[in-house]
């Protein structure tokens, strides 16, 4: 979900392809040196790098509040959280590198706009309550997707997910705790929480991607064991988990169609505005431009730093050779 | 305010204001590893802030959060160095290194404080700061002795920031009282350790500390104009909702 709508490659029909599929069906993990179909490799690179890019860009909306966190404790927790997110980006780039692509190539794809990241980060964080919503809802939605990925067919990705999931569950709890403090606070704080929920609920619901009926890329990825549940299954699970939490908090989810369905033992809920979803993906969200500009500026402004370190490394190597 | 409270506020304010500047890099550093490192140092510094403020909370009748979010710029006693802006990443690294070069011997001396709480705080913090300086020193050397551009940027940052080290190393009557009580280390060993550390590192980095003006004031609440803006950002939410809990 941090990876959305990842275009899936095609499976081949050779004996090698069939043996590969058989391994996956027997739940044997694929490791970097094993043979794999080109489509599998490319799909995984797209999925893992999109997830990594989302972690990196995801620093920005939260980083927006590090300098304004309203208590020392909240500031410390947010710093720890954002540090984790950057760390996730690092593991995930490393996992992608095992598939034969470099971090620099992937960075280049992000900066040029060729690679995507989760569209949720193109929404602005306008108040402190938004930081709570990102933890509670956005990280909550991410965990729904990432917990099953701990069992995905590609070894390095599944192992990265184990650590990522542990940290994400701390992130979700910290988000929930921010919102809890707000709803237990003053009228203004409660209003701030409700306003943020109104703005983040539907984008969070849309993080799971389009409805299964319109999701063109899922089938092959599911066969390959790199997508384990359908978009709609995960979305339903997320809604079922979150509605009681919102009730406990005394907040109202902005969906008039939301109601418990006794027969299904699940909540029925309304249809998100998919036009908005595709519009944001196309680049028309409030912050698309700003997010990419910020990443490009960081990269460009930091060129001298990276070149300086390379120059020093080269000098040191030459000195070592001369000394030998 | 007692000499002890003054000292604790100075230590806490340094950590908070540098932590605030450090936090501004989140998502904007030149490589991912630096994003992580700056968040990590910021986290250590905010943790230290809480400990120093906690030490004087009772005497001043203010919670650590009140001290952070409800004092004006004239009441902050941090050095001028830590409030200097993130002009570029070279400034951020040099500011960190110069601070670390003072912070480490200061904390090291405080581990022998006659005040057991101060000694314990220093014992905990000195471990973090040893790591900070290992990292900042290494980057000063590599970038100083790197490409022509990285050298020039590091030298420019040193030229700008070096005069503020006078404020880091300054002492006054409050300090003298605490030195006499064995509460804090004397000025000389801290100054010597700082001089040795920076001379050795700048030689390896092919950088030169400038002569010239020595700028002081922050420790007595006389700040640069950057300070007001920094506080305006940092304090905006609690000040808009006085009495609220977060």
UniProtKB/TrEMBL annotation, chain A:
Residues 1-21 are annotated as: Disordered. Transmembrane segments: none annotated. GO terms for molecular function: phenylacetyl-CoA 1,2-epoxidase activity. One of its GO terms (cellular component) is cytosol. Coiled coil: none annotated. PANTHER family: 1,2-PHENYLACETYL-COA EPOXIDASE, SUBUNIT A, PHENYLACETIC ACID DEGRADATION PROTEIN PAA. This is Ring-1,2-phenylacetyl-CoA epoxidase subunit PaaA. It comes from Pseudooceanicola nitratireducens. The lineage of its organism: Bacteria, Pseudomonadati, Pseudomonadota, Alphaproteobacteria, Rhodobacterales.
UniProtKB/TrEMBL annotation, chain B:
It comes from the Bacteria. One of its GO terms (cellular component) is cytosol. Transmembrane segments: none annotated. SUPFAM superfamilies: Ferritin-like. InterPro entries: Aromatic_CoA_ox/epox (IPR052703), Ferritin-like (IPR012347), Ferritin-like_SF (IPR009078), PaaA_PaaC (IPR007814), PaaC (IPR011882). GO terms for biological process: phenylacetate catabolic process. Gene3D superfamilies: 1.20.1260.10. PANTHER family: 1,2-PHENYLACETYL-COA EPOXIDASE, SUBUNIT C, PHENYLACETIC ACID DEGRADATION PROTEIN PAA. This is Ring-1,2-phenylacetyl-CoA epoxidase subunit PaaC. The lineage of its organism: Bacteria, Pseudomonadati, Pseudomonadota, Alphaproteobacteria, Rhodobacterales.
